[in-house]
Amino acid sequence: MNRQMKRAYATTVAAAATVALTAGMTGPASAGGPTAAGETGTAGKGTTAAAAPGSVIEQEVGQNPEGYLTISGTSMAAPHVAGAAAILKQRHPDWTYAELKGALTASTLGGPNYRPYEQGSGRVAVDRALAQTVVAEPVSVNFGEQQWPHADDTPVAKEITYRNLGTTDITLDLAVTATDPKGDPAPADFFTLGARTLTVPAGGRASVDLTTDTRLGGTVDGTYSAYVVATGEGQSVRTAAVVKREAEAYDVTLKFVGRDGLPTPDYWSYLSGIAGDGRGSYREPHDASGTVKVRLPKGTYLFDTTISEDPEDSRAGTDWLVQPRLDVTGDMTVTVDARTAKPVDITVPDSAAKPTWVAPRYWYAGEDHNIETGVDVDSFDSLRTAHLGPEVTTGSLNQQWIGVWQKGTDTEYDVMLGGNTRKLATGYRKHLRPADLATVKVGMGASAPGKQGRLFVAGYFPELGGISPITDPLDLPRTRTVHLSTPDNTKWDIAFEQNGTPDEEGTAPTESFYTFDEPRAFKGGATYETRFNGGVLGPRLSRAEGISRDGDTITGELPLHADGDGHAGWTRYDSVHTTLYRNGVKLTENSDALDGNGEGFTVPSDAATYRLTTSVRRDPALATTSTRVDASWTFRSETSTTRTQLPISTARFTPETDLTGRTPADRTAVVPVTVQGAAAGNNLKSLTVYASYDGGTTWKKTPVKNGSITVKNPAKTKSIAFRANITDKQGNRSSVTVYDAYFGK
Question: How would you classify the pairing of strands 411-420 and 478-485?
Fold first, then answer.
């Protein structure tokens, strides 16, 4: 950095530290306004600045034009304003922040299609600011809000004072232009000036009144804006002004009563606008007296309140009272009385199981709103609830009672009850019986030693999915017994993750993740088994998975490491190498794991024979089984008008192993082999399977009989590898190889 650049940089930093300027925008990245939220519009949209080669930003956006970066946002606007202030400070070293701010704001250039909330007074013009000697105080005028109705509004005047920083008197011609909330010209005399000319003495001040008369707005409510422009002696001073003409609104008084019948300060409530002029608004009214008045636009609101016996301990008692539909059509008083709430009583058929997590919640959806919320309590025992107001007849209200009970480290009860309703429950009682619960024994596998992992169990209704607590990881491998509630047609999803070594902050990274394809229905009283992260992991194909072509792009979306029970998911790879050949010639290669997250391959449109190969590897410290998977698919393809699945196949190997991927050494074992994809079923032309006991150095052909192969399990601590070559009746060829498929023990 040369001396001149250092001096300019130091000046900019010094000015930025001492000058309280704010940056507005004339683009969508952010917004300015007529107050301290943004009194100028700056070069924040498509701003060009010198590039720092090799910087993070330079790497992200590139140089355009060469040597420069072009970016939008306040991150660009703010330093440009600071730089403008620094230049101005250099010209006028004796000016304070007020003069600097005033000159930059007064000398702006207005955009013809922008209003004060979009550009402040206008776009910063440094050259004009350097010649500026007249500033306005304040730099913007906010008349606030005039309450509805407006027939009796009183005109409001505010003073604009012009200050002459120069050495000669200056006479200013004053003019005001105004727009209504729609951007059309405001009615005549909506904003008026007390004078049309004003002489400001050298070193002195002169003032003029700006008056707004909101009675003149007719039926158009909202924010009206104006610009007062004073011109003279080659200078202009721009001052933005706004006033809000309130739409139809009313005073709503909210009263909160505790269980003792007295006003309570221990409440939390919110109002969410779902229809009318208040749609999309959100308020959290509170006053320690237990009574609070809010001004609400005419419309419909959801009103949600929690009253606590002890705000620091939910076990002391929590009352949750919700009015899904509060119609505000006039001044009104609404009383929320905790004494109207009734108890919630939900139990599981095991007194030794203790609640560890509860999440009562509801979902209220409609054309103009989508509200999902709940209440934070430690147990259902301390909760009481009540529905307030009318029923919801649109079918858009859903309630959930979600809870988890645990006994020891390996038994849990997961409960989700409720569903679509017209009214939220005023009290709720459900004592679950064994016949109401499905039992799922969940194996949590890990082939590498010293691993930890956890389960996520979430219920689903047709209208709304559930949520699952994030628990502490447990040592692997292990089997957990999960009891799932079955009333109310609940479906369940179970997911598993294997965690790596925690970082310095104690966060354990995810190394592998597996889940059901979709939530499943279970039968009460029945017992099920499933295992995650176990068995032989390898490619899986289904109707929704595979290699596809859309136009001239070939992409992959399939799990290369689906677990032995067929659960799809994700695992961390040490290396990925994927290559595409066209008519025997290598077309391209990349690190696409074919899991749907890659960029795919762009290919010529005419028909050709393609061979797609991939090889993925896992660190043995993450998993000692299925450490390497190779796959190859050969098929014909040409351009397509829609996304088309390509004819590929795979083979799944499903021997019986324990949760570490091991089986008794040296025994004879029958290993089922299942073909998936294009060659499945009657379209299979040939299937050849090989086994290797030396890491793939040598292979022995193994006959397939009745959908299985017979092998000798590997010796203790040794592994076996499998390879399958598949051809369908159309001649498409596929090959899959799984190294370290399982070990002997």
Answer: parallel
Count how many Cα atoms sit within 13 Å of the Cα of residue 722 in the half-sphere of its side chain. Answer: 33
User: 58 phi and psi, to 5 degrees?
Assistant: -60, -35
DSSP one-letter code for 600: -
Q: Is the pLDDT of residue 557 over 90?
A: yes
Q: What SS3 class is residue 632?
A: strand
Contact 463, 493 (CB under 8 A): no
Q: Give a yes or no: residue 12 inside a domain.
A: yes
- Put residue 473 in one of left, alpha, beta given phi > 0 → left and psi -120 to 50 → alpha: beta
The Cα 486–Cα 528 span in angstroms is 13
For residue 573, being part of any structural domain is answered with: yes
Amino acid identity, position 464: L
The CA R_g of the chain, rounded to the nearest whole Å, is 35
Going 153 to 154 to 155 to 158, the CA torsion angle's sign is negative
What is the structure's pLDDT at 34?
52
Beta bridge partners of 47: 71
Backbone angles phi, psi at 116, to 5 degrees: -55, -40
The terminus-to-terminus CA distance of the chain in angstroms comes to: 66
Ramachandran class of 234: left when φ > 0, alpha when ψ lies in -120 to 50, beta otherwise = left
pLDDT level of residue 41 (50, 70, 90 thresholds): low
Would you state the structure tokens that stand for residue 204, as one six-digit string? Answer: 């002195």
The pLDDT, as a whole number, for residue 19 is: 33
Positions of E strands within 180-204 = 191-193, 197-200
> What pTM, to 2 d.p., does this model score?
0.79
- Cα separation, 235 vs 200, whole angstroms: 13
State the DSSP string of 389-422: SS---SS-EEEEEEEEEEETTTEEEEEEEEEE-S
Q: Which residue has the tokens 């290369």?
A: 560
Q: Are 711 and 691 in contact (CB under 8 A)?
A: yes
Q: Is residue 69 part of a domain?
A: yes
User: Among the listed ranges 361-375, 579-593, 712-726, which one has the minimum average pLDDT value?
Assistant: 361-375
3: Cβ contacts below 8 Å, ≥ 6 apart:
none
Residue 531 has pLDDT above 60, yes or no: yes
Determine the structural domain holding residue 645 and report its residue range.
Answer: 546-744
pLDDT of residue 97: 86
The whole-number average pLDDT for the span 717-738 is 98
CB 620 within 8 A of CB 717: no
Beta bridge partners of 298: none
pLDDT band at 37 (very low <50, low <70, confident <90, very high): very low
Q: Which residues contact 640 (CB under 8 A, 6 or more apart)?
A: 549, 550, 551
Q: Does residue 124 have a pLDDT over 90?
A: no
In the chain, the number of structural domains is: 2
Rounded to whole angstroms, how far apart are CA atoms 453 and 431?
31
pLDDT value for 27:
39
How many other C-beta atoms lie within 10 A of the C-beta of residue 443?
21
Strand partners, 232: 235
In whole angstroms, what is the distance from residue 464 CA to residue 374 CA?
13
Residue 46 lies in a domain: yes
Digit-coded pLDDT (tens) for 347-359: 999 999 999 999 9
For residue 461, give the nearest of 494, 492, 484 by alpha carbon.
492
Looking at 107, 125, 156, the residue that finishes a domain is 107
- Counting Cα atoms < 13 Å in the Cβ hemisphere of 197 gives 4
User: Strands, E, within 118-260: which ranges?
Assistant: 134-137, 140-146, 156-164, 170-179, 191-193, 197-200, 205-212, 222-232, 235-245, 249-257
DSSP-derived letter for residue 642 is: S
Cα-flanking dihedrals φ and ψ of residue 77, to 5°? -65, -45
Residue that terminates a domain, selected from 88, 107, 126: 107
DSSP state of 314: G
* Greatest extent of the chain over all pairs of C-alpha atoms, in Å: 107
Q: Which two tokens stand for residue 163?
A: 């200050």
Return all residues near 631 (Cβ < 8 A) that are at least 6 apart.
539, 560, 613, 614, 615, 650, 734, 735, 736, 737
Tokens of 622: 């993450």
Classify 259 as helix, strand or coil: coil
Instruction: Specify whether the CB–CB gap between 406 and 455 falls below 8 A.
Output: no
